[in-house]
Write a structure and sequence with these properties.
heterodimer, A: 229 residues, alpha/beta, Rossmann fold, 6 helices, 15% strand, B: alpha/beta, 38% helix
Chain lengths: 229, 204
């Protein structure tokens, strides 16, 4: 059985991914940021042997290191790492710039760096949630500086990691989930094109399947179309 | 009428050189060593207020890690500082300068680095520098999206490391083909493009 870690698995797309990976027979380490949110506990009741809830705040060095210890106690091999945790602010200011990059960008890098030793023996697949919002070439947004810049920076981090780790056999997925009725801004959005379950199903196929060329890093969206940077 | 220019980041070599070039071209040049110092930013903008306008805001933010970053032992506190100095300080300075820019030529110029293109990056260790640069390029693009309808124009320039090719100040002053009613296929000002000193387009 393969082992997958999903950050931000409390709700929204992260939770939907935890569910779809569980249903497909994976051992799932579900990163939990909000212990009071009940959905993960309910999912654990459905998959008591294969789903492990791991307290995980990707914005915090200590929390990520603790999560590595907890996962390492259960396995010596992690196959797939999915960085799904993310936040969004509509308004821009310095504090929000820094909080957003800390979670959306450094959070992914921090988690990959920390779990890298555990991934050496596994499938070596790293999956990051990117966004059209981080595509500089095609951006049309006149606002949300904090979110868009955090996603552009994540794309850069992904490209650098790709160059560094691809020669070691790692493969990468950069996924744009579309406009999802998710919890990115704190409460479930009423507007959007997709439910979390819909985009999670496409993500599962991309994260576990093949792409035409593993030697070029590209963003792929919920319609399976490829994007530039 | 004399052009009024504010060059921020003159603690970096290229920005300092650019300030000198503008001065030699007859412009009235104000220099900020860094956008980090809020008091200095406010003071210089107060000075420029006396001119009644600002034609060019030119910024360079080129902060690299002081430590030697190694994957496996990355310093996230330092990376956050680099991001703050590169992205947040630039954002704040642009916001503060907009009232004066709106009365001038309305041109914003970023001095950047071809190696900080996501597609062309060769760096594999200094995550702090490269990620902040990508974030900054996106901030520039969002400003472009927001301000283009109000007549602002944007430059994103990567000077050649050997100093050959177009000088930065010359590039910042050049006007490109423009038709307000056309799309970017025939109107260079209607898209944001990063170019090097040989006028070659660099992918983002």
């Amino acid at each position: 059985m393969k082992h997958v870690l999903i950050t931000g698995a409390d709700r929204g797309v992260g939770f939907a991914l935890a569910e779809v990976f569980s249903k497909n027979g994976y051992i799932v380490y579900a990163g939990q940021f909000m212990p009071d949110w009940p959905e993960l506990e309910n999912l654990k009741e459905r998959f008591p042997e294969t789903l492990h809830i791991i307290p995980l705040d990707v914005g915090n060095d200590v929390s990520v290191k603790e999560a590595v210890k907890l996962v390492s106690a259960k396995t010596d091999c992690l196959d797939i790492l999915i960085n799904c945790a993310g936040i969004f602010y509509q308004e821009d200011n310095r504090e929000r710039f820094l909080h957003t990059v800390q979670v959306n960008t450094f959070g992914s890098l921090r988690t990959i760096e920390a779990f890298y030793p555990l991934m050496q023996k596994g499938q070596k697949r790293i999956c990051n949630f990117s966004s059209e919002a981080g595509v500089i070439a095609l951006s049309t947004r006149p606002d949300t500086f904090t979110y868009t810049s955090s996603k552009a920076a994540l794309n850069m981090a992904s490209q650098m990691l790709f160059q560094k780790l691809r020669p070691e056999g790692f493969t990468f997925r950069l996924y744009h989930p579309g406009w999802v009725r998710s919890y990115m801004s704190g409460v479930k959005a009423t507007e959007g094109h997709f439910e979390p379950e819909e985009t999670a199903l496409v993500a599962f196929k991309q994260f576990t399947g093949d792409i035409p060329c593993e030697d070029v890093l590209m963003i792929q969206d919920v319609y399976n179309r490829f994007w530039p940077f | 009428m004399r052009e009024i220019v504010l060059v921020a980041g003159t603690c970096f070599q290229e920005a300092a050189k650019t300030a000198k070039q503008f001065h030699e071209l007859g412009a009235c040049v104000y220099e900020l060593p860094t956008a980090e110092n809020k008091t200095a930013c406010e003071a210089i903008l107060k000075e420029i207020e006396k001119e009644g306008k600002l034609d060019y805001l030119i910024i360079q933010a080129e902060y690299r890690s002081e430590s030697t970053p190694v994957f496996g032992n990355l310093d996230y506190a330092e990376m956050l500082q680099i991001y703050e100095k590169t992205v947040c300080d630039t954002y704040d300075l642009v916001e503060a300068s907009l009232p004066l820019l709106s009365k001038g030529k309305k041109r914003l110029g970023l001095i950047t680095d071809a190696a900080s293109s996501i597609r062309e990056v060769t760096e594999t260790e200094d995550f702090g520098y490269a990620m902040a640069k990508a974030g900054l390029h996106m901030v520039w693009k969002v400003y472009f999206n927001r301000l283009l309808p109000d007549g602002y124009t944007f430059r994103c320039f990567c000077p050649n490391p050997d100093g050959c090719g177009i000088a930065t100040a010359d590039y910042m002053r050049m006007d490109f083909c423009y038709d307000a009613n056309d799309n970017f296929l025939h109107s260079e000002e209607n898209r944001l493009v990063m170019r090097d000193g040989w006028f070659r387009e660099i992918s983002w």
